[in-house]
Amino acid sequence: MKRYLSIGVLIGLAVISLNGHADEKAKPNAWQGKTGEDVYNTVCFACHKEGVADAPKLGDKAAWADLIEEGQAVLTAHAWVGVRAMPAKGGQPDMPLEAFADAVAWMASNSGGDWKTPDDTLLAVIREEAIQRIGVQVTEMQEMQQELHKLTQEHLENRLQNMEQQLRTLTTATEKPAEKANKK
Fold this sequence. Notes:
Elements: H1 2-26, H2 36-48, H3 61-70, H4 72-81, H5 97-109, H6 120-183
């Protein structure tokens, strides 16, 4: 019985998933047909025009030099998944990689680089680099989680020791008056 139930649940989830994907494909993508410059003017300018949170300003060749040196795939992938103060996908959860990558290429090309809109081959390399970057981020988050668990455990142990000490102090204070009363 349980076997049939789990198969039924899996089939149900698959149908829901397929329906969800069908709905996504039916929705028009707001980024479709936008150039890298369009994406910059829609989203990226908010930080890259004035250098908010140390974002390299568009056209600042010195600020972009080291980033451009990293290479188009690495820079695009790291920015895509979020790096330093920059949120993943520039804070636009619905932005496809193609539009994002085109915007990065446009900004780099207008800041000292010679980058072109990525073709399918470069997009595949960017995706692989993004996967690796996410793996690093997951490992870092797991290490932070372990550290937090350790700190929480230490904190709880310290609290428990303090409470035990307070209980001993209260018990000792309560016993002394009782002892004095018994001696009389």
